[in-house]
């Protein structure tokens, strides 16, 4: 249920900023940057927490915090005080929930199923998530168009409440991690040393880190591009975004045969190439493709399909490879350290993209992202040890 809610809020929250508050590109960049800022501030201490505490209570706390934050958007709108600073705070709280809850979920999954079944499990989760990706954005677009964006955000908050109820019904006996007498800073240093001293984890860190830098830059501009450059309504944007769910579904069926035939490293690079192609084609969509705004919207939806397909092919092998080479005692710190190294730079990408779009144009900002993504893909294919990973 939280995946369904996240799909609605992922579209409704930026639409609140773009349509209700008439946010500038720089403000959209700041909103996306603040959602990523907790990765820079909190992931390393969160890793120590995950290695020392049970994961289920952390997951519950994260869901409750995200739901309350989203519910406050609707309240602020009803009382006439909704503003960009309000959305900045909500974005930061959602990012914090994802840092804590997302890391706890990954460790919890490994404890439940073991390492050898990770790719199979992630593929099944991707199939399930594709349903949320197919339905969520469409409902978000309809809710925004018919009932306003704050109502759509309120629906998301209700989804998080249901997720909390589902988590409370989990009856798995989770062992209490062994107590540690080490200072948290010592554990943080150990986590950084472990990741940076492992050649594969180091390569995955810099590759995914640069990709996140570009992705968050694109996220800061994509809603503005669709609504202002292509003239898409919230309903049309929601329907176009649902094609991303189809992309997740298709890639979740491809991931197992691709990894068996070519290995997780090559599969990850195929996913990277697919996202790069999308970055390159997106700014080339005209406002009136073949004289039709509807054709432009369809072209946007097709690119969303290939992008989400690429993201799934990129991240499932990425997560499986890093978890397979990490001992149990380091899992929490490894996950949080990798999240720190890969997403800490994301606020800079969002702010830079917003600044470029503010001073030049939205298409110029997207074109810069495309050029950098092409360089990253060529470098990863040519110089990274990821391609040689076969199992």
TrEMBL record:
Topology within the bilayer: Multi-pass membrane protein
Q: Which InterPro entries does the annotation name?
A: MFS_trans_sf (IPR036259), TM_effector (IPR010290)
Keyword Transferase attributed:
no
Q: Does the keyword Transport apply?
A: yes
- Listed transmembrane segments: 33-51, 58-81, 87-113, 134-162, 203-225, 237-255, 267-290, 297-320, 340-357, 364-383
> Where does this protein reside within or beyond the cell?
Cell membrane
Q: Please state the protein's primary subcellular location.
A: membrane
Assigned keywords, A-Z: Cell membrane, Membrane, Transmembrane, Transmembrane helix, Transport
Protein name stated in the entry: MFS transporter
